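User: Okay, second chain of the day. Same drill as before: sequence in, structure tokens out.
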Amino acid sequence: MDNIDGIRENFKFIVTETQTQVNRIHNFVKSPTCEVYEKAVNRESYINNLKTIIENKCYAYIHTHGDMDTRSLNRIRAVLSITANLERICDVCINILEQMDHLAERYILRNSEYAPMFQVIEESLEQVLPALEGSNLSKALHICRSEYILDALYRTSFERLTDLLNAGREKAGNCITAVFIYRYLERIGDMLLNVGEAILFSALGQRIKIEQFDSLQQTLENSGYTGAIENINFQAIWGSRSGCRIGKVESAGGGHMPEHGSLYKEGMPKKILREKENLEKWNTLFPGSVPRIFGHHEDVDRASLLIEFLSGCGFDDLIILRDEETVADAFRVLEETVRHIWEKTLLPGPIAVDYMQQLQQRSDEVRQVHPEFAGRSHITVGKAYVHSVQSLIEQCAEYEKSVHAPFSVLIHGDFNTNNIIYDDQEHAVRFIDLYRSKQNDYVQDISVFLVSNFRRPIFDTTLRDRLNRGIAEFYSWALQFAKEKKDGCIQARMAFALARSFFTSVRFELNQAFAGAMFMRAAFLLESINAHGQTGSPWETFSFPPDLLYYTA
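Assistant: Same drill. Structure tokens below.
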């Protein structure tokens, strides 16, 4: 690390002072003396002052060097994080001193228990400077993993002290104080974990947790990658609403890696396994339509996939950024591809739909973001009665039981425009994020695609017209497909599905006017469904005005 405006010098001081403070506390626990106590307490102000100096210099440098490169900025961010955690470690050291004052009998603290904990802490602190300055991932991981070791050591001590307390062989106050002391040592592990992860961030340029790094490393090994983990560039991709961590992985030299890199996806085992199964299924039925799987790793609470990174442009960007001819070609290819998939996987026979159930599962999230919409109560004006949102949804859910799709197809399940990739070199459409893919009503994919275009917060008139034309094109094609398949109640199912998509999309939009535009469309559709259901008329006679699919900026 370069000595930017003296930052390195002060940073080295705080690292050294933290090491010294931890060593003082270790000596005090072994053999308490007033001299060691006073030195430790007196140095607390100096350590706090060092932290303030480093923070001021870091922020001043960022303020005066607006053109600094990303690597330098990441290094400064790491220094700030490490400094804050080192200062917290020193605070915990003082907490241990204070607890020692309350300890009636020192023998309850066993050297065989606390000495290994101090050793782990001291060894980890010795790694901080060389790990940060050398961007050494191995040393950073060593620091991170100290947290696991300290947890295990604390657990052993805690169980012994609990047994003593339960058996009545020690005074309660003595046992509890000893537990506090060991607990403070265990908490230092949490701070060391933050320090190690800050160094990983500085080296990789991306925030990544130790368990995620371990998962990435294991997944790469399972994929056949032979290079060192230090030769991997990991670029996080934000914006996922699924709870999964997604990043692009590329080789920076050494080791085999696909030309365009790979996509790393990590999350809950159930989701990752389901996506793996669906990718395998799609690649069997429609080779090349979805990413190939290069590696898979699964632990008790996390799982990960390494899959092919697809070249091309997402439909969300394509509609806005590309020329009219390319957009038209993309829609043609999309419609041909989707038709082929639906034709090949079509299974005749009525199936129930569950759009209202999906809506109800997400209604609490909508209510949290926009209680003024989702929490609307019933209103009576003269003889007119307006249902509350909840009662309206419940009534529509009852009517939905009588609505069935005439056949099922293999749907994507999350057919948002950002999950559709168009490669204009190969004139091909491919799909990503297939966790929810299953045999179901094709109307679900249609409604999600339409609303994913509508809900984009773009208010420029020209760009909004492009979105509206894309919506009109796909909706018209969908109606034609339904006509060919003699699907007479598509409008009714579309109303349920669109109401679900409009309503649940409200939770992602903080612009109240735009969120209100989506909510009012959902409410209109629900009111229309309810009114039609009360007449007892066949669902084949239901229709809604297509204008509600378009937004005018």
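The chain is about 60% helix and 10% strand.

User: Thanks, on to the next one.
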